[in-house]
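pasting for the record
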Amino acid sequence: MIRSEELLDKLIADLHFHKYLEMTSDDMMNQRRNVVATKDKIDIVQRYIDDVFIDYFFRSQTFKPIIVPKTFYAKRYTKEGLVRVDSDIVLNLNDIYDRYTFVHIVNILFSRSRPDVNGINRNNLFFNGFLLVNKIFAPYCRCPTPILQLPYTHSFDQYLDFKYGKSHSLFAPVFKAQAVKEYGLYYQDNWLNFSMGTTNYSMQVLHNRFKDYIKIKYLHTFGEYTLEDILFLYTILVEKMELHEDNLLSYISLYCESFHSPDNIVNRFDSFEKSHINHCEIEPFILIEDLYLRFTNVKKSKAFKFNPINFEVISIKHFQGKEIKTILSDNTLPLPYFYDHSFINKQL
């Protein structure tokens, strides 16, 4: 994704000027008095830039429609929150509310609360191998995300050992999708070198989880996309193409056999990353209020006022400015001011 010191410096300077960041000193002799932001704060700014970039990807690409059978789920997101519908749901990932619905639908697959649909068994050991854990994407919104339960193979940690020894911090890819492909292809070429569980029980659990994933990965439950495609799209929106030992992306990447296909979702994102490297491309989409919100305390803020409308919607008001509404849950790209902006509304 875009890595630009110039853009980072510009945004950090604005945050500091408006007192969202304080000057810090990193040593006792005050030799670094001019440091404006800690690494944690810089990471928040970079995550915001990544969100703008990912939104750019989803707004500018052509996606096949995602069709959710009404027998599977009968609600979708609108600006008023989740509303009931009486027909199959057809989702267009260019639309922000359809993206919220898409994330919601995929989370249902991992929730263990739905009946069998088109061959997906709610007792599928792949889906049941994950727990949904709330993750905060901004101080005012969060989303359940699947975390792999033990036992797991530690494949990503082993991969980092093979590539970097114990210096795992050397893994800092700019092009996220390329890193995902390299990881998956390395595993497929060298899988005999990976250890797969330490006891007979864990090996059996891992084998059954793998078998149940292979059963469903090529199903077309939601239209033209396979479930593998659906999960990769989900990982871009929710996991932001970040590999971690216990996340969904690190698992499904091991068994992807289409990394060389131009239609592969990871390849599409890889091409997009490598053809959009100039930060000037995304600057028109940066609304500084969206970044301010990442550093705002919902309860104590004097600049912003937050008013929950219902379980899914909250209103936000910046000083005496216009009141806007945004979705609370299933919102993994929290960019409410950008989405409310008149220019982008015409696009959506």
